[in-house]
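Intended use. Records like the one below are meant for learning the mapping from a protein sequence to its folded structure. Do not use them to infer anything beyond what is encoded.
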Amino acid sequence: MTRPIRIPQRVALGAVGGALALALTACGGGAAGSGGDAGSASQADPGAFPVTVQTQFGTATIPRAPQRVVALGWSDQDAALALGVKPVAIVKTEDGFKNGVGPWAEQALGDARPQVLDTTDGYPIEKVAALHPDLILAVQSGLTSADYGKLSQIAPTVGYLSGRTAYGTPWEEQTELIGKALGRGKEAAQAIAAVDQSLTRDAATYPQLKGKSFLYAFPQPSNGRVVLYTDERTRVLERAGLVLDPVATGAPKLNSFSNALSMEHLGSLTSQALLVWYSTPENQQQLESNPVFKGLPAVASGAYLPVNRTLAQASSAPSVLSIPWSAEQILPALAKSLH
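Structure written out for the chain above:
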């Protein structure tokens, strides 16, 4: 499976707008320093605790404002940071990330230095327990009932909602759930509204994008196929006016977040814009040297965007922090070539 970037668990997988900046400023004051408590009770909404959060694997009852939060979802730390809470531990998503977070979250992280947990072989239960958390976030995660059983014995654990798939929670829902668990529902609503406004502004700023078809792909030469995403990363781009090409949804289903075509059907990728992320430079060189690829409409017109690993991570698990950042990397480049 091909869900960038690090394969955790058992899964085979414009700049920040003024409104968002104001929202983060409003909810970020007084957050804890490096490696210490996650936040203070004075920051929670009045009357927020105790709070009960019902998710797919069980109910988490949080008696008071959490002071030591462990974020086990891919982008759960982003939502927490946006709400002024600095987790004591987060999961490793990309080797090159300074202090474990993407560049979109560095300012919100400040001088905090959370422990970075490697979940490639599953959640490190003993390490989590040793951190003495009073809340575990696993919303944008691959949580299983067995995982939940172990983690919930350590601390109240908030997973994804019933009916959602692993790593399949929309960013708005993720922010709402985490905001509720942290007692910061008002701040969560403000942060969501700010990102919504930034996406609306993006659509107005780049009218060239409106109605243009696009695909977000990932080549797998070893499997002889091209993965076409149909998940949150494409939904965010649709908010900016782009339209997902029907070839993505019509291709044979690969998993809950993507479909795939065999490489022999590469010529059917006739969308007006094309984003492709590559796991290795060799894969990029191989695809870009393919004569069929060179002749694709998006490539020939210049509306082709190679996606690096950092941007792939930002867009694959979109959050209130990463969406404005990734929009700045993607939208101007595509708008320049689309008419």
